[in-house]
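Figure 2 data, in text form.
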Amino acid sequence: MSRSSSPSTGARQPLPEATPGPLPEAAQVASAADGAGNREGDRVVVLGRVAGAFGVAGWVKVRSYTDPPDNILKYPVWQLGRPGSWTELTLEGGRVTAKGILAKLAGIDSPEQARERTGAEVGVWRSQLPPLAPGEYYWSDLEGAEAYSPGGERLGRIDHFRNAPGGTIVVVHGEREHWIPFVKERVLEVDLDAGRVVFDWEADW
């Protein structure tokens, strides 16, 4: 999930999701104090998934969606669960091994407890993510936006992004499903305030 800068003219360059980085100290304190309930004006952004248990002390294997994968360990407070049902847990330890990313979370102290978390998504509050430069966007900020053709015809709603051998694809659900290459030539305009993205793409493609 690397990031790149758009030209000074604005949103004419698609921007892959920015790499999460370490939190400022104040953000860490605020996140730890706010609990796992919904926070007004904030939302959970999924950064990975619990892939299984590891060892006898409650460590879990994590499939990380960040780039590089170990960036997920820079966040001291995780949300585990599913959209609408999150549990906040403190990250007590983490390391990168030949078997992948391993994490130790507070309150998970046995293999049985770790196995119960297998399949759970790992997220952080959107406000924990590093700020972006003007013209940069997180994929999660674009998901749910309305997609349009250059002529103003609605293509549908951006559902998710998918990594493919040829590059990133944005999947749009409308009257038909569109798989649009997320490349500079295809993204013509991004308006986050309006929740609108214009692609060089037609509804009948």
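Caption note: Confidence is low (pLDDT under 50) at residues 1-37.
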